[in-house]
Amino acid sequence: MSVAVYAWLAPAIITRVISFILLYIKSVDDIHPLRGQETLVQDNLGIMFAPKDHPVLFVAASFIGVLSFYKLWLVAKGLHEGGQKVSSNTGWGVAVTLWVLGLLLLVGLTAIFPSFVG
CA 16, 3, 46: angle at the middle one, nearest 5? Predict the structure, then answer.
């Protein structure tokens, strides 16, 4: 639990601070009513695809971003530091495996239910 909170806290704070700043900088017309509800930060490659036209590519590209890689690094570092006999390679292996499984799960669900994205 402490590793999950350790990995979640810093990216969440960074995202909220940047979203708060962007809220005052962006025009109201530029904010998407659905995707802009949680965050205004677009730090991933999902901006390259239209969710309505390519939902699977949009979801897959949304996993590749600065804050998602930072969170992946924090998970690997937290597993290494939080476990008593966990090596750095084991921490990275578990973190990358969970990241890939999450990616495959969401891409699979998007392929089955493409109308939920967009």
Answer: 45
Is the CB of residue 15 less than 8 Å from the CB of residue 39?
yes
Yes or no: say if 55 and 117 are a contact pair by the CB < 8 Å rule. Answer: yes
Tokens coding 11: 């990216």
pLDDT tens-digit map of 12-33: 999 889 988 888 887 777 776 6
Helix (H) or strand (E) holding 31: none
- DSSP string spanning 52-111? TT-HHHHHHHHT-BHHHHHHHHHHHHHHHHHSSS--HHHHHHHHHHHHHHHHHHHHHHHH
Sole residue written with tokens 């966990």: 86
